[in-house]
Amino acid sequence: MAGIVVVVAFGFLIAKTHVMTHLDLQGVKALNALHTGVLGALGSVVYRLFSPVEAVALTVLIVVIIWVVSKNVRLAATFAFTVAVTWVSSDVVKLLVHRSRPDATAFPHHLAQRVVDPSYPSGHMVFVSTLALTLFFLARGTRSHILVAVAGAVVTVIVGACLIADGVHYPTDVIASAVWAAAVTPLVLGLSNRHLLPRTYLLPSSVETLV
């Protein structure tokens, strides 16, 4: 719960006082200088790949894979519910804080598409962080949990760097998004397993203990 309060309070602070804007913009400029050639193309692909429509499709695909591989309906439903609630709830913060995007005239390389919605927190980063954390929690106690943890961490860092290099988010947007996911994901996972989904199907024992 403390993480949620910190993200919201910090968001209002930086959006209303612009206390971090100059330093944040220097971070955007530094990474945006790398937004050329292959790295630039990667950044653009990452932004597109985790946009809302594509993110929903990816979530559905993962839900189906979990269901087919585990033959556990509750496991798949828990994953879907946790990702959806953690991700969508961050949009409420985005609308309340309403921080402007980085000034596109301050750096040379831009995405082809114009991004006009509020900047804080990053929906892309919340989605990817939540995806990685939820898969990690659900994989705990299995042989694949280390692989899931490492893969999730690597993908999350790459996506965060790409979002800054794309010039669509400040570093503090990205950091706050990861904090939001880390704070909300366990809460939603616990709510799902205690109150919303019947215990007809068993999750891994480590997840039951966690929540």
TrEMBL record:
This is Phosphatidic acid phosphatase type 2/haloperoxidase domain-containing protein. SMART domains: acidPPc (SM00014). Residues 76-189 form the Phosphatidic acid phosphatase type 2/haloperoxidase domain. The chain crosses the membrane at residues 49-69, 76-97, 120-139, 146-168, 174-192. It comes from the Bacteria. The keyword Disulfide bond does not apply. The lineage of its organism: Bacteria, Bacillati, Actinomycetota, Actinomycetes, Micrococcales. InterPro entries: PAP2/HPO, PAP2/HPO_sf. SUPFAM superfamilies: Acid phosphatase/Vanadium-dependent haloperoxidase. Keywords: Membrane, Transmembrane, Transmembrane helix. The keyword Signal does not apply.
